[in-house]
Design a protein that fits this description.
The chain is mainly α. It contains 3 helices and no strands. The protein has 2 domains: about 45 residues, no CATH class; about 35 residues.
Length: about 80
């Protein structure tokens, strides 16, 4: 997402002729978009995207389990005799 944001900023600056970006070649301005495509391709190919999604889901699931234990009063912190 950072690369897309950077690409959009460069694109707007080039279009309106703002700052040093106005003098850059177009391929420099559009290069963050190409890098974003490469990143997404690698992330999908390597399984990084799926791993991050699974970690987020596991974290949500564990938080839900802990909330339910606390609501039932069985948080496991007290040991029975």
């Amino acid at each position: 997402m950072y690369l897309l944001g950077l690409g959009l900023i460069f694109l707007v600056m080039k279009y309106f002729g703002l700052g040093p970006v106005a003098a850059w070649e177009w391929w420099w301005v559009l290069s963050p978009f190409a890098l974003a495509v490469l990143w997404w391709s690698w992330a999908d190919w390597s399984g990084y995207t799926k791993k991050v999604a699974m970690a987020k889901e596991d974290k949500r699931r564990q938080a839900r389990i802990e909330r339910n234990h606390e609501a039932l009063g069985t948080s496991g912190k007290k040991k029975r005799r």
